[in-house]
Amino acid sequence: MKKSSSLKIRLPTLVLVLEVIIIALYAVFVTYDENADAKLQNNETNPMDNSLYRDYPYFADVQVMIFVGFGCLLAFFRFYGFGGMVFNFLTATFAIQWAILMQGFFQFYYDGKIHLGVINLVNAEFACAVVLISFGAVLGKTSPVQLLVMASLEIPIFAVTEWAITKYIRINDAGGTILIHLFACYFGLGVTFVLYRPSLNDGHAKEITSYHSDILSVMGTLFLWVFWPSFNSALTFKGDDQHRAILHTFIGLSSSTITAFALSALFNKRGKLTMADIQNVTLAGGVTVGASVDMMISPVAAYALGVMGCTACFFGYKYLSPFMARRMRIQDQCGIHNLHGLTGIISATAGICAILLATEETYGPSLYQTFSHRAPPEGDPQLLELQKLIPGLNPGLGRTAQEQALYQVAAVLITIAASAAGGLLTGLVMKFPSLASPSDEDCFDDELFFDMPSDFASIELLKVYAVTAVSC
């Protein structure tokens, strides 16, 4: 192991500093929310009304996606299985802890405390997903120290962007297409642009998969696939909105999956299936339906969006990723631009179209619940009439469909700009020599950062086996 890549001092020091900061901030700012605070319970409190029973199933499902789904999916390199899974574990754990604070500081601004409940954990998991998607762009080319630095900077930038858009622009984005997928994608591309390695454009001897690593990666795909309906529906309105979100996500994933199989066989020179397509392109439908997932878009529209997203993702992997690496200095290791960027733009466009087409004839009075910013403002007589039909309906901004659509466009542009700029700045910080960045020759190799078991076959040993086999 090269001295410049040693974790002996760097990783423990960084972790200790981060833990001290988190402990101090938790001690000062974090307390329980009303559903977890014993002082707020009495003999009239029904334990089964606690929000835990409503929110925990979604928390658990997203936990599986974060730690098992992403972890296995990123373990597709033959010599970087430990790095893909373990660095995902490390980064995700820290990102959730940090996101609780960063997202909660805007709550602190209003009432002086960060009130922690299960719903806060769900929101923190979404912020964590942003970091893990961005991680895919630099997989195998960064140290765990660099990844923790990336997470520590990306989470605050994301939290500020999320707060600004939800407070001032106010958009419909139930599945996180704009604030999760697009932000994560262009942040990751900004980082990998700065960390560009010219020698990797010609490939790397260790940048290969194996039979077992591909199986493990497909397992990650299956975990993400199965739990994606929970991811897209977790923060939607309970009831028919959430019901539609689950239906649309499943339909979109199903159509993108069978389309991916067809495209993979069609464009393979030997008419066979390519594992990279099965591992990634099958998931495109889950992203493509995200922006309109809770709307009355119809099942056939969800199906069509799955096909469109899959097609864009497939051709992105086949043609766009190599072009970006050669011509734009963007080495997108996991193709996040295809699975989250291209599909995110399609999804955001579909959401804008769904907003423009939404009418009371289709939605009834619930139009102003699904599209809350179109509800009449406080004091409007129409609001009182609607509240008789939908008790608890909150005042809105009185926006028209066209106005809301323009705000959606603005949110897309602002998110892409903020994330790309944040990624570029974060990449510059990650280039510091003290952060144990691997050399070009040591990329995609677990031996650099792990004590490997005796049955681990290095690339050099495989070459010896190959020469011996040819000689025999």
Question: Topology of this structure?
Answer:
Blueprint: H1 10-29, E1 30-32, H2 52-73, H3 81-111, E2 114-116, H4 118-135, H5 144-169, H6 177-194, H7 211-233, H8 240-266, H9 275-280, H10 284-288, H11 299-327, H12 336-357, H13 360-363, H14 367-370, H15 381-389, H16 401-430, H17 459-471
Helix pairs in contact: 1-3, 2-3, 2-4, 2-7, 3-4, 3-5, 4-5, 4-6, 5-16, 6-12, 6-16, 7-8, 8-11, 11-12, 12-16
Terminal CA distance: 34 Å
What structural class do helix, strand and pairing data support? mainly alpha
Count helical runs. 17
Total count of strands: 2
Please indicate the percent range of residues in DSSP E strands (runs of 2 or more). under 5%
Helix content: 55-70%
**Shape by Cα distribution:** globular
Instruction: List the strand order in the largest sheet.
Output: 1-2
> What is the CATH class designation?
Mainly Alpha
CATH superfamily grouping: Ammonium transporter AmtB like domains
State the major sheet.
2 strands, parallel
H-E order: HEHHEHHHHHHHHHHHHHH
Mean pLDDT: 93
Tell me which CATH architecture applies here: Orthogonal Bundle
Unreliable stretches covering 5 or more consecutive residues: none
